[in-house]
Amino acid sequence: MQVLRHVDNNMKGLISDLQTLIRQPSVSAKNEGLEECARLVAKIMRNSGIRSEILYLRKGIPPVVYGEVKSKQNPKKTLLFYNHYDVQPAEPFDLWKDKPFSGKIIGNKIFGRGSADDKGELITRIKAVESYLKTEGDVPCNVKFLVEGEEEIGSMHVEKYLKKFKKKFSCDGVIWEFGYVDAKNRPIISLGMKGLLYVELSVTESIRDAHSSLAVLIENPAWRLLEALKTLRDPNGKIIIKDWYKEADGFTKEELKLIQTEPFDEKEFKKEYGIKRFVANKTGIAARKALVGEPTCNIAGFVSGYTGPGAKTVLPSQALVKIDFRLVPKMDPLKQLARLKQHLRSNGFGDIKVNMIHGEAASKTNILDPFVSKVKKAANESFGKSIVSVSSAGTGPMYSFAKVLSAPCISIGSTYIFSRIHSPNEFARIDLLNKTTKCICRIMSKFN
Amino acid sequence: MQVLRHVDNNMKGLISDLQTLIRQPSVSAKNEGLEECARLVAKIMRNSGIRSEILYLRKGIPPVVYGEVKSKQNPKKTLLFYNHYDVQPAEPFDLWKDKPFSGKIIGNKIFGRGSADDKGELITRIKAVESYLKTEGDVPCNVKFLVEGEEEIGSMHVEKYLKKFKKKFSCDGVIWEFGYVDAKNRPIISLGMKGLLYVELSVTESIRDAHSSLAVLIENPAWRLLEALKTLRDPNGKIIIKDWYKEADGFTKEELKLIQTEPFDEKEFKKEYGIKRFVANKTGIAARKALVGEPTCNIAGFVSGYTGPGAKTVLPSQALVKIDFRLVPKMDPLKQLARLKQHLRSNGFGDIKVNMIHGEAASKTNILDPFVSKVKKAANESFGKSIVSVSSAGTGPMYSFAKVLSAPCISIGSTYIFSRIHSPNEFARIDLLNKTTKCICRIMSKFN
User: Fold this and answer.
1) Distance of CA B190 to the CA centre of its chain
2) CB of B207 within 8 A of CB of B442?
3) Which listed site, A237, B199, B203, B422, has its alpha carbon 20 to 30 Å from B12?
C-alpha cells in the first residue's frame, strides 16, 4: 500500500512535529502553556491537511482542538480520534536525565514529558491522516479529532464539550486517547474503563489538638475513622457496604473467554512492584478478572496528627482519609455515594463528613461490536499480533463519549507499557510510533 | 516570719532574674543556647548564695546545673529541686503578641517562652533559698538543685546523670519540676506521672507507589495497618492486647478517696476542647480515675499516600502510624513492647515493623508518705487551700528519680493552669510566683 510507504518516508516529519509538541510545556495541573499548545496542535493539523478549529466552553477552561477531514469516497462513516494535549507535571525535575521538555532522541527513543502520554499518540493519528491525504488525496472515512486539555486533571469539562458541540463530534466509532504495547510488542486493544468515586472522609473530635495524656477522655479522630473504615471492606478487598455490587455488571460469555486467553505476566508484575502475592491470594484467571472487572476500595491517603520524625505526644483534633472506589459498568457514582453515606449513618458514623471529589461511571464497548474485529485485524496486520482486553483497570471519560455520541470506543496506541508515563524520563519508541501510524491507517481503511 | 517578708521585698529581684533567664533562648529541640543558659542559671544561683556547678555526661549532651546549700541547723535532711532550663520551640512566631523571648511584663503577667515552663518554677526555688540565706544565714534543710537541659525533648540522659552523680544528688525528697495552680487558685499537688511507650508501626507492601487501579491486586499498606490496629483497642479505649493490664497498679483505698474528692470541672474541660462527651461516655469518678490511672493507646500520627488537596489516585507503598501508650505504675515499657510484638505476630501481622521511639515507666509517690502531708500543709498555708492529685496524666522521668535516689517525688509549683505553656504567649503570673516562693520556703522549714 502506497499510504504505508508514505508513513515510513514521513517518519522524519512525525518525529520533528512530536518534538515541537513536547517542547511546548502544557501542564494542566499548573494551567501552564495550554492555550499555546492548543494553537500548536491546530497548526500541526492544518499543515497535515486537517481542517482545525479551537473550541471554547467558556473563559478559564482550556480549549478543545477540533479537527476534521471529510471523505469523498465514504462520507457516511466517521471515525473520531480522542486525544489530549495536556501533560502531567514533570516533577521531580532532578530525576530527569535531560530537561523534561527536551524531546531529545537517544537511539529508538524520544524523551520528554508528554512524549508518550499523549502527544505521541496524537501525532500518529495526525500523520496517518496526512499520509492518506498526501498519497490518495482522500481519506477512507470521515475523520474527526477531539483533543482536550484537561485529561490529566480529570477531564472535568469534556462531557460539556461533547454536549455543546454534539453535532460536530457525531461519529460511528471512537479511537481512545491511549493505547499500550506490551513487553512482547503486542498492542493491547482495550474496550473499557472502570469508573471512579473519589471521596474524602473526615472526622473532627475537638476544636484543637490536645496533649496526648488526655486520650483517656477526648476521643481520637484517627481511631474513630479507623472504626468506620473497618466496616467498609474486608481483608480480602471485598466491599461490605450494603448493595454495593447490586448493579455491578458481570462478564459475558465472550468476555470470560477473552479473559482466559488474555496473557498476564504475574511473575513480571510481581517483580515490577516487589510483591510476593496478590490481594486475597488471587492468581491466574481470578487476578485477570479482578484487573478488568472488580470494584475496589483503595485508601489513597490517610493523615492525622504528627507525622514527622521522632515522638510527639499529641492527640490530634482531626483525621482525614482519601478513598478511591473503582466502579464497573452499571454502577452509578452518585448512587454509590448515597450508599456509602447511608452505610456510615446506619453504622453509627453519622458524624463522619463525606466529601465527594470526583465521580465517573465505567464504560465497556461490546466485544461483539464489528468495530472491535476491524481494529483487531488492523492491529494484527501492523504488529503481527494483538491482545483484546475487556477493560482497562483505570478510569477515563469513556462513559461520557459512549453516552453522548452513542458510539463504541476502543483504545489502541503506541505507548510501550514501561515507557514511564507520569514519571521522570518518559519516552516514546520510534518503532512503535511507526507501526501505530500504519495501524491507524489500516483502521481507517477498514472503517466502512 | 522574716523570711516570707523577704520574699515579698525581693520580688523585683525575682522578676528581673526571671526576665534575664527568659531572654536567653534555650530551645533543646534546636540545640540553641543551652550551654549559655546553663551558665546563666549557675550564675544566678551563685548570686543567690547557692554553690553551683555545671556537670557534663559527655560532649554533645546538654549539661546539668547542680546547686547545693548545706544546712547548719539540720544537715541530716536533704531536699532536691528538679527543674529544667530548656524550653519548647517558640513557633509559630507570628502568633506571639510580643517577641517570644521578651520577658515583657503586662500587669500581673510576665510573657515569654519558658516564663512558666520551667524558668518561672526554677526561679521561685532559687529565690526561696536566697531569702533564707539573706535573713537567717542558713537553710532549714540541705537543698540541692538538678537543672537539666533536655526535658522538652524527653529527658533522655537524666537517668544517666542521676546514676553518674548519684552521691551528689542523694536526697530525702524531690520537688518536681512543674506544678499547677488551677482556675480557683488552688495549687495541685501531684504525686505521680504516667509512663510511656511510644512506637511506630509501619507496613511496606511494595517497592513503589502504584496507580490505584492496581488495588485489585496489590495490597494497600494503609488497609493492612488498619486491620492490625483494630485488634489493639476496642471503641471504648480498652486495650485488647493479651495481658496488657496484667501488672497495672490499681488504686489504694486512700487514693480512691482522694479521687472522689478531687475536683475536676467536666464542663470547663469540655468547653476548652469543644467536645460533648468523653471516651466511653465516662463521667464523674470514672473520668477522674481515667485521668490519673488509666493506660491509653493513642494514635499520635498516621500517614500514608497522598494527603494534599483534591484527588490523586495512588496506591501507596507504605503506611506508618505513631502510637503512644500511656502506662501506669508497675507496667514495664519493654515488657509491654514485647506483648505488642507478640500480639501482632500471633494475629498474623508479623510483617508489621515495630520501632520503639521512647519508653518510660510510670511512678507514684505513696500518698501516706509524710513528705506529702508536709507539702500539703505548706501549700495550704501559702494559698489557703490545695488539691492533692494521685497522678498527673502526663509523663516524665519521675521513675528514674524514685528508682536511683529512692526518694519520694512531689510536684508543686506556680504555673497557672491556662498559662499557655508550649503555646504562643506563654506567661507566668507574678502573684503565683510570690505565693509559690513562700510555699517553697515553708516546705523547706517543714522538711526535717
Assistant:
1) 11
2) no
3) B422
Chain A / chain B CB contacts < 8 angstroms:
226
Residue B219 one-letter amino acid: E
Architecture of domain A195-248+295-360: 2-Layer Sandwich (3.30)
Amino acid (1-letter code) at residue B21: L
What's this model's pTM, rounded to 2 decimal places? 0.88
Three-state DSSP at A291 gives helix
Identify the bridge partners of residue A84 per DSSP, sorted by sequence position.
Answer: A148
- C-alpha dist (Å) from residue B70 to B75, B127, B139, B144, B439: 7, 16, 7, 9, 20
ipTM at complex level: 0.88
pLDDT (tens digit per residue) in A295-335: 999 999 999 999 988 888 899 999 999 999 999 999 999 99
- Residue numbers in A near B205 (CB within 8 A): 275
- The x, y and z cell numbers of residue B16, run together, are 528581673
**Residue B25 near residue B101, CB atoms below 8 Å:** yes
pLDDT tens sequence across A212-258: 999 999 999 999 999 999 999 999 999 999 999 999 988 999 999 99
CA distance A261 to A284: 11
- Enter the C-alpha cell of residue B386: 490545695
User: Can you say how many angstroms the Cα of residue B149 is from the centroid of all Cα atoms in its chain?
Assistant: 13
Cell readout for B371 is 513528705
Please name which of B297, B324, B302 lies closest in space to residue B199, comparing C-alpha atoms.
Answer: B324
Nearest to A307 among B213, B233, B301 (CB): B301
Residues pairing with A322 in the sheet:
A200, A301
Please name the fold of domain B2-193+363-446.
Aminopeptidase (3.40.630)
Angle between helices B253-261 and B284-293 (to 10 degrees): 120
Nearest to A447 by CA among A178, A176, A142: A142
Subunit contact B220:A307, Cβ cutoff 8 A: no
Looking at the predicted structure, is the pLDDT value of residue A367 above 90? Answer: yes
Tell me if A136 sits within 8 A of A73, measured CB to CB.
no
Cα separation of B321 and B338, whole Å? 18
Three cell numbers, residue B185: 487558685
In angstroms, the separation between the Cα of residue B161 and the nearest Cα of chain A is 22
pLDDT at B122: 98
Q: Which residue of B has its CA nearest to A211?
A: B394
pLDDT tens-digit map of A179-215: 999 988 999 999 999 999 999 999 999 998 888 999 9
**In the block, which residue shows the cell 537524666?**
B158
| Residues in chain B within 8 Å Cβ distance of A328 | none
With contact defined as beta carbons under 8 Å apart, do A149 and A33 qualify?
no
Question: Is the pLDDT confidence value at A422 over 90?
Answer: no
Three-state secondary-structure class, residue A116: coil
What average pLDDT does range B133-147 have in this prediction?
98
Residues contacting A366, CB < 8 A, separation 6+: A191, A372, A408
